[in-house]
Specification:
Elements: H1 3-11, H2 56-64, H3 84-94, H4 98-101, H5 119-127, H6 133-137, H7 155-165, H8 169-175, H9 193-201, H10 221-231, E1 242-250, E2 254-258, E3 264-268, E4 274-277, E5 294-300, E6 303-311, E7 316-327, E8 332-337, E9 340-354, E10 370-376, E11 384-391, E12 396-406, E13 411-416, E14 422-426, E15 433-434, E16 440-441, E17 451-457, E18 460-468, E19 473-483, E20 489-494, E21 498-512, E22 528-534, E23 537-543, E24 549-560, E25 565-569, E26 575-579, E27 585-588, E28 591-593, H11 598-601, E29 607-613, E30 616-622, E31 625-634, E32 639-644, E33 649-653, E34 659-661, E35 678-683, E36 690-707, E37 712-716, E38 722-726, E39 733-735, E40 751-757, E41 760-766, E42 768-778, E43 783-788, E44 792-797, E45 802-806, E46 809-811, E47 822-827, E48 833-837, E49 839-849, E50 854-857, E51 867-878, E52 881-882, E53 893-899, E54 902-907
Parallel strand pairs: 4-6, 9-11, 15-18, 21-23, 27-30, 34-36, 39-41, 45-48, 51-54
Antiparallel strand pairs: 1-2, 1-5, 2-3, 5-6, 7-8, 7-10, 8-9, 10-11, 12-13, 12-17, 13-14, 15-16, 17-18, 19-20, 19-22, 20-21, 22-23, 24-25, 24-29, 25-26, 27-28, 29-30, 31-32, 31-35, 32-33, 35-36, 36-37, 36-40, 37-38, 40-41, 42-43, 42-47, 43-44, 45-46, 47-48, 49-50, 49-53, 50-51, 51-52, 53-54
Helix pairs in contact: 2-10, 3-7, 7-9, 7-10, 8-9
């Protein structure tokens, strides 16, 4: 074999691309193995490159382009290094300039030493400035014993050649001033920084192990294939073997694509055609190619040997409805829409599949089936080219909960009781509705959260029976117009614009400020009311315009036994006169007197507290305690000023040894008090000074543990600070969730609103807490529908005062909550709602610690937290099946939903 033939064989090994996924050993001399110029099928597997090889896609692609060939025995030898002269030939072929290069004379005198076969290519590379004479002849470094052309190509040198080959020199100049991201940047040649940075920014090259680049490392044949394969996307001119366009038609043997200019080409596909996904370099089946997907095709004489899916973005129009009628002779289809029947033209080659992609015949579609029609947006006035049968007609009866009512689409979604899955059906032309008492109603009575049974006929809702209506809460405000004598209904004027008539629930609560035991008989026409409704029934009446007037520290001037008129002065000097009645309560400490004993126990000059509703005196009590806000604390003169609930400001002297009690201590002093503190002050019996001040405090705590034996609660506030307190009796407990109020109602992970006066616990309210999956958000109505883990579907009105917390940020926009979010919603007793959205991630289980009740997850590249405690009522499931915590084992793939560093939901 003569020398020229050897060189011809040798050049076949040079057309490969740089890998960025592994480092290469440095070879001191070129390989002595000689490649052969065999006629290898472009997509035949090389005997030494398995289907699992990391570079198989890139090697296959370059082989299909005719750039690389194999050695004897059909070997590719992917780990062999590539020489500089081989890289030049490869770069010129990639640029589509080989014919131009071969016009150069082979006897051209070159400034570098190369084998004769490569001379035309190297000469052309210098002529087109792909190579720079000064750069390649610089001998300032250590002299090489190997000829220039036969030297092993380094990673930084190949980066330079490829960036020049794809015309990105300008980007390299721009990036030359940017520091390298690699740890071994000191090993980069000065000229290489810009080229390497440019290659990184174009995602042609990354680092090797431990974020190094190894710039002087050798480039293997597998690596070179990867380098060029990735650079190919930057080319502006391509081989005539390459076509890029959108799939317009696909069968077992043919594929039609349309380029951006609207030109169509058809290619044969066969068993030798290979198809890859550009996203992850994986081999895929032809069925993964859908109409309008973008593809890169390498073909020879009309046969596609290599196809790459470059974008799976569909460019298809879509319309969904139920099949009304098929007109096969005319190739037309009519579907039912909310707006009526829509008639569409079908393409002659229309395809029909079920939702899983299985083929169906056009004539097999049953009337009433839920179908999706799709047409190609790349074709003007395109006809329907795809029909997907999503659901065949269903006739059945079912039970479940209404999840959503889509009025614009005329559909209802149910959470089916048996399967635990959502199912959506359109409403039929006439849908009778029955209430729980079996009385007839219409669709307006349906509400999200209703528990129902329903009948489906031919895929349409034919009837709904409400078994249990959802508890829908609402709040309305207005002026009382009338209330019936039996106190069972009332009418209010809402904002002066409309009237609202409401039934009153049995045992409805009435709240009038200053009147602890208010009832419906205390509500009078003209009162401004805020009504709390459940299912349109009044459960609580809040009188907002008329509080019980509380006047503290008034002075008695006279009491007339005959007229029963009490006169006196308020603290501000205003006079008052009230007629006392037998219904007035008279108190001195814990003692209560009848009206007949008033003059014997209340005297001129006594300080009294009055509670008055309009002109009716509710209570007269000798002043022994004041409630209010500190407006002055003077430690020099030992004086404090208190603003009472009625707006009075009263100044008192206090003793040097004033007893100050805080919720956390009983040993406070005057210096510990601050202006703005809410306090309760106990008077001296002479009523001229204060002997004790108790600071009042209200806070919300999350329960960590509640011990029913000791009645002790361990809790934390929103800052994570820990607190312990004891609840001695049930009388101070109130429960927003139900009528009972016992210590046993307090559970781990509940929230309590706790009030203290000094160090005395005065009230504990168990707040209503919802945890679950959002199924709907109605911004107009101000409601969030949640599929609660414990209590089923709940519709929560968030009111006007709400805060949404998500990922460390707060928001007051209900639109920031989306369906499928996992949330915790806490309703405060002051009409404020706190909504926290859980963080969610895909993770892998390491183990479950049964002793600590902790899920341990495998580490991530981002260093995410690995160990989590579980909420006491965490929802652990696989699909709709609830599973135990120990069912999660090593390597399980899970979705984790986390609130306050605890798992609220864990899904296999």
């Amino acid at each position: 074999m003569n020398h020229k033939k050897k060189q011809t064989k040798k050049i076949a090994a040079g057309f490969v691309a740089l890998s960025v996924l592994m480092s290469s050993p440095v070879y001191a001399a070129e390989t002595t193995t000689t490649p052969v110029s065999t006629s290898v099928n472009a997509v035949s597997a090389f005997s030494d490159v398995s289907a699992q090889h990391w570079a198989i896609k890139h090697v296959t692609k370059l082989a299909a382009l005719g750039i690389i060939q194999g050695y004897e025995k059909n070997e590719y030898r992917p780990e062999n290094p590539v020489s500089q002269q081989e890289v030049i030939v490869m770069a010129i072929r990639m640029m589509g300039l080989e014919n131009e290069a071969l016009k150069s004379k082979s006897d051209t005198i070159l400034p570098v030493a190369v084998d004769s076969f490569f001379k035309p290519y190297i000469a052309y590379a210098f002529d087109k400035q792909l190579l720079d004479i000064k750069e390649e002849t610089d001998t300032s470094g250590a002299a090489s014993k190997t000829a220039w052309g036969a030297r092993t190509a380094s990673r930084e040198w190949v980066a330079k050649l490829v960036i020049r080959a794809i015309g990105k020199q300008g980007l390299a100049q721009e990036k030359a001033l940017t520091p390298s991201i690699f740890k071994d940047e000191k090993d980069l040649s000065n000229w290489a920084v810009g080229y390497v940075n440019a290659a990184v920014s174009l995602k042609i090259v990354n680092g090797v192990d431990d974020n190094n680049f190894q710039p002087k490392g050798a480039v293997t044949r597998a690596q070179m294939a990867t380098f060029l394969s990735r650079a190919d996307k930057e080319l502006t001119t391509r081989s005539d073997k390459v076509s890029i366009g959108y799939v317009m038609g696909l069968s077992n043997s043919k594929m039609t694509i349309q380029n951006e200019r609207g030109q169509s080409s058809e290619y044969s596909i066969n068993a030798n055609t290979v198809i890859y996904n550009a996203k992850d370099d994986s081999r895929i089946a032809s069925s993964a190619l859908k109409e309008t997907y973008e593809v890169y095709v390498i073909q020879t004489q009309g046969t596609a040997s290599y196809i790459e899916l470059t974008s799976d973005q569909e460019r298809m129009g879509s319309l969904e409805g139920s099949l009304n009628q098929l007109f096969l002779p005319n190739m037309q289809i009519a579907i039912n829409q909310a707006s009526g029947v829509d008639l569409k033209e079908l393409a002659p080659n229309v395809t029909v599949t079920d939702k899983d992609g299985r083929g169906l015949s056009l004539g097999s579609i049953t009337q009433g089936s839920i179908i999706e029609l799709k047409w190609n947006l790349l074709v003007p006035n395109a006809k329907i080219s795809q029909i997907i049968v999503k659901q065949t007609p269903v006739s059945k009866t079912g039970e479940g909960t209404i999840i959503s009512i889509q009025k614009d689409q005329n559909t209802v979604t149910f959470l089916e009781k048996t399967s635990g899955k959502n199912e959506t059906f359109p409403l039929g032309p006439i849908v009778p509705v029955k209430l729980p008492d079996q009385t007839a109603a219409d669709l307006s009575k349906l509400r999200v959260g209703d528990e129902v049974s329903y009948e489906i006929k031919a895929n349409q809702i034919a009837g709904i029976s409400i078994r249990k209506q959802a508890d829908i809460s609402n709040v309305v405000q207005g002026t009382l117009i009338s209330i019936s004598d039996d106190k069972k209904n009332m009418t209010i004027n809402i904002g002066g614009k409309s009237l609202g008539a409401y039934f009153i629930a049995e045992n409805a609560l009435v709240s009038i400020e200053g009147l602890p035991s208010a009832g419906l008989f205390d509500v009078v026409v003209g009162d401004e009311l805020k009504l709390e409704l459940v299912n349109e029934k009044v459960v609580k009446v809040n009188v907002t315009s008329r509080s019980i007037k509380q006047m503290a520290f008034a002075t008695i001037v006279n009491y007339d036994n005959d007229t029963k008129v009490l006169t006196g002065t308020f603290e501000n000097g205003d006079l008052f006169a009230y007629k006392l009645t037998e219904s007035t309560v008279f108190k001195d400490g814990n003692r209560t007197y009848p009206l007949a004993d008033f003059s014997a126990n209340f005297h001129k000059g006594d300080k009294i507290d009055l509670k008055v509703s309009k002109d009716k005196v509710i209570t007269v009590q000798l002043t022994e305690q004041l409630e209010g806000i500190l407006t002055q604390v003077n430690t020099t003169t030992n004086e404090v000023s208190i603003r009472t609930a009625s707006g009075q400001s009263i100044t008192f002297k206090v003793p040097d040894n004033l007893w100050v009690s805080f919720w956390s201590t009983t040993n406070g002093t005057l210096k510990d008090l601050k202006v703005g503190d809410s306090i309760s002050a106990r008077m001296k019996s002479s009523q001229d000074s204060i002997v004790q001040i108790s600071v009042k405090k209200t806070a919300v705590y999350k329960i960590l543990m509640a011990n029913s034996d000791t009645r002790q609660v361990n809790a934390e506030d929103e800052t994570g600070s820990l607190f312990t307190f004891k609840i001695d009796n049930n009388d101070i407990i109130s429960n927003a969730n139900k009528n009972t109020h016992t210590f046993g109602d307090i559970q781990q992970d509940d929230y309590l609103k706790v009030s203290y006066t000094g160090n005395t616990l005065t009230n504990v309210t168990i707040l209503k807490t919802i945890r679950g999956k959002v199924t709907g958000v109605d911004t107009a109505a101000g409601t969030v529908t949640v599929q609660d883990y414990a209590n089923g579907v709940q519709v929560i009105p968030v009111g006007q005062k709400f805060v949404i917390k998500q990922g460390g940020l707060t928001s007051a926009a209900l639109t920031s909550i989306k369906p499928n979010d996992r949330v915790e919603i806490i309703s405060d007793t002051d009409d404020k709602t706190f909504i926290t959205v859980a963080d969610s991630t895909k993770r892998t289980v390491a183990t479950y610690d049964i002793v600590l009740n902790q899920i341990v997850l495998k580490p991530t590249a981002n260093g995410d937290k690995t160990t989590y405690n579980l909420f006491s009522k965490a929802y652990l499931h696989k699909g709709t099946n609830i599973v135990a915590a120990n069912a999660f084992v090593e390597n399980d793939e899970v979705t984790v939903f986390v609130l306050a560093n605890k798992i609220i939901e864990l899904e296999k």
